[in-house]
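Dear support,

I submitted the protein below through the web form. The confirmation email said the job was done, but the results page showed an empty box. After a refresh the structure appeared. I'm attaching both so you can tell me whether what I see now is the final result or a partial one.
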Amino acid sequence: MNRSMNQPSFIDPHLPLIDLHRHLDGSVRLETVIDLADQQGIDLPAWDVESLRPYVVVEDREGDLMDFIGRFRYLTAILHSPEACRRVAYENVEDAMREGIDYIELRFSPWFMSETHELDPAAVVEAVADGIKSAERDTGVRAQMIGIMSRTYDTETCHRELDALLAHRDHLVAIDLAGDELKFPAGLFEPHFRRARNAGLQVTVHAGEVDGPESVWASIRELGATRIGHGIHSLRDPQLVDYLAEHRVGLEVNITSNLHTGTVDAYANHPAKRIFELGLLANLNTDDPAISGIDLKHEYEVAAPRAGLTPQMTRQSQINALEMAFLPEHEKRALLEKKAIRPDRT
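What the results page shows now:
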């Protein structure tokens, strides 16, 4: 990316570029949607990318989080087979490479992906794992999988979803909980996360996105979360802020997504700047780039400055992302060494 001498850079090319919060099924190419729909005779509202875009991509704001999730319907409609899931997973890593990303954690709900065409959720997990591993090999981008339990279904369905994920536990690095945070509080899923932790998996939970600090507390205390997806309403509770800082609980911040879900009403009102001013462990991510119409560079170069972040804060985001990553220390060092050798990818 070429810049004038006087224009500040919001991405440090000497540090890894990392996305820790990206939904694989919210990152499907529109070209792939059209291609797979055509192959399988699946109905779409439009058959070229620009005409389909308004049905998938949010231009301003949705009514709320659940309206935003409704945008997934065309992205999951084309997941008619494990091979389609494999293709989408592979292309996710390819797209990360094209964005200049060095390390990415891709999360997905196998139940959500399998529901439309009644696929075997365990087969979806296997296909996604194969797609990611193949793309890692072909692109050189380090990628790992986070399995989501979709709380919006119910606790029993989440047990079955967890069964599917644990059937391929060796391909996973962590378990997440996503969906309707207001109607399905974290405490309902304590047994599920006990199983996940006993299986040796890390824990990150969507919390403090539409609900308040109590959702974040419950995710930490009852589910064992060491990272929080979003967590922007944590700032309402000074004691929680102190806890997050002291215990280095990471916040996976998604600025544009929060605007598009109606969680905040403007870039300028996003609490990201305050999060970094307080010195909390936080980083910038994309969430659902196909639906928000963004990539990770947009979050650094456009969303971050509009939200008031400085280049020093976005550099800290890159540093924090490496600390927060579900990677062993030797791999973190290797990522830093790689950037020292190849500092020009961004």
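Response: this is the final, complete result; the empty box was a page-load delay. The longest strand covers residues 142-150.
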